[in-house]
């Protein structure tokens, strides 16, 4: 995209006003110039899109007319590559057919150079799409990650060992308390025997008549 001298002057003023927005207030004429420049830039972008669409359509027509349109096809393909065009599988197949077709040495060298360039660009495009879809490889188990290394570097972070430290061992239980000893002067009570609690009954004496009879 090319700017004229007037457009460059307006663009320079716009950039200066953007850098000094706190101290510089644009005049109404400058505001109109800025809006006109923005419209011109939008129109140039739309025109560039239309030109690109036309060039790609021309490239497809020349590709469909191969091998008779080899010279025009190579010229338009080279121009599209200079504008950032990524070759399609149809372009690679067409270039390989042209590479195998009989031609002069200069033309064969030209076709070979375009084919190598297209293959390189197509390979870069495939790699970029794969890297965008496939996530980054995970960290190996034996290698500490960067986040854990930063945690160890911070005060209060984890130690060099990633394994958690064993917790404190449980304290042994205290033995059961023994019965308290009797206070000094307190006499021990004797445990009564069953005979003392339940004394045996004494047999009563027989009546006198029975003694006489006997």
From TrEMBL:
- Region (Disordered): which ranges? 135-214
In which residue ranges is the amino acid composition biased (Low complexity)? 144-159
Basic and acidic residues bias: where?
160-172
Composition bias, kind Pro residues: at what positions? 173-182
Indicate what this protein is called per its UniProt record: Uncharacterized protein
